Amino acid sequence: MTSTFRTLTVPLDGKAFPGGLPSFLVRDDVLCWTRREAGLAGFGEIARFTATGPDRFLEADIWWRHLVLEAAVTDSVELPGTGPVAFGSFAFSKTSTHESRLIVPEIVVGVRDNQAWLTQLTFDDGRLTEETALAALGRWLSGGPAGATGAEGTTPAPDSAGDASLAAVPGSGGGAVVRPLPLAAGATLHTGSLSEEAWMDAVAAGVAEIRTGALEKLVLARDVVATVPSGVHAADVLRELAARYRECWTYGVDGLVGATPEMLIQVEGRTAQARVLAGTLDRRDAHGEDGPPLDYATRVLAGSEKQRHEHEIAIQSLTRQLAPFSEAMNAHDEPFILELPNVWHLASDVKAELTEVEGHVPTCLALINALHPTAAVCGTPTLVAGELIRKLEHLDRGPYAGPVGWLDAAGNGEWGIALRGAVIESPETVRLYAGCGIVDGSQPQAELAETWAKFRPMLESLGINS
């Protein structure tokens, strides 16, 4: 006999954690999606779905819709991200052996528009109340259940559930604060699948293929492996990323950590939005230049035919794939300059009103199935670029450049592209990934330098000089 999936969502006093959602990034096994002070943090696991292959998105969609179809949901907040929620990450490639996954946590904390909430999710038959939810959160934040990695900066939950509303959240000093990181003692970096020279040869080979007319754009990625003898702690990495890269979406799912500036798709009701990036400039390149740095970025990025061409390919890729699901769509006529601590990007935001397809509004996973991979992370034409990536990279990207984010039972969700990230492979090792868009005018040495600029957020968060 299968127990019923049940959830309870109650308001949470946001004044108890002025640092916002990043205040809850205190465990290495936390599931998270956060930008500025808002987002979701999940603890524990009550259900999991995994899949590989070309149908991984649709299989996950079917599993999730079946799970929530008969769920008993009590939700007094009713915002995107309340009620049943799952966190997920998906492999970049349909040929990857890496398992794509959806994870349903036991406890979710959410912050949005100055409102905070707490959701408890269960298959058990016990009664769900505000007291049980607060007590469960307190247990997770104070070090239990089994397998906990500790909760630095938290206050243990008391025995009395009645006091848990204060004890179950980090103290006011536990917010995300930029602080000088002690350099990781003895940390080392090693090349991954390809040496720098071999990767530059791959870039040159990609440019040669583009010049034959076989494709317009190719995205090539590379990896490096960091060894940190003092240990790699996901919670520390996530807090640093959330504090330093506030305009990005910081994500953590099963050892995949990062802070992406690129939103693949955000769905709220019938409105879908995306942020497309293509065109990158290292902020260090502005050192010694006359005038304000942003003027330099505008001149070099917006004034570059190569960068504008790469950006236009990415925009057309997304809007073309999104159009069949939309009754109206608009995008910026001109890209804007997105300022991040490490780089500038050419960026465009796209907004669409979703239409019914076969009698219902498409789910975010159905949209991802249509959109991924975009030209921003693969190239165009997609099939040609994908085959060339497999030939030249000598790398299984795993979840790198795949969709990462969350979805709820109402069809809402936020899914970024897993960029500026890494996979924690052991207590002391982490594999970092970075990629570049290759077009006709690309220079291998410049593209290599761009990868190092894109590695910088993760290197900084690990306490490694870059």
Distance between the termini: 55 Å
Q: How would you describe the shape? A: globular
Radius of gyration: 22 Å
The count of domains is 2
Percent of residues in beta strands: 25-35%
Q: Mean pLDDT across all residues, rounded?
A: 88
CATH class of the largest domain: Alpha Beta
Protein name: isochorismate synthase
Family: Belongs to the isochorismate synthase family.
EC number: 5.4.4.2
Domain Chorismate-utilising enzyme C-terminal: 196-454
Description:
It is built from ten helices and 23 strands. It is an alpha+beta fold and 466 residues long. The chain folds into two domains: 169 residues, no CATH class; 274 residues, Anthranilate synthase, CATH 3.60.120.10. The strands form two sheets. Strands 1, 2, 3, 5, 8, 9, 10, 11, 12, 13, 19, 22 and 23 form a 13-stranded mixed beta sheet that branches. Helix 1 runs antiparallel to helix 8 and helix 4 crosses helix 10. It is globular. The N and C termini lie far apart (55 Å). About 8% of the residues have low confidence.
Q: Would you kindly provide a brief summary of this structure?
A:
The protein is α+β, with helices and mostly antiparallel strands.
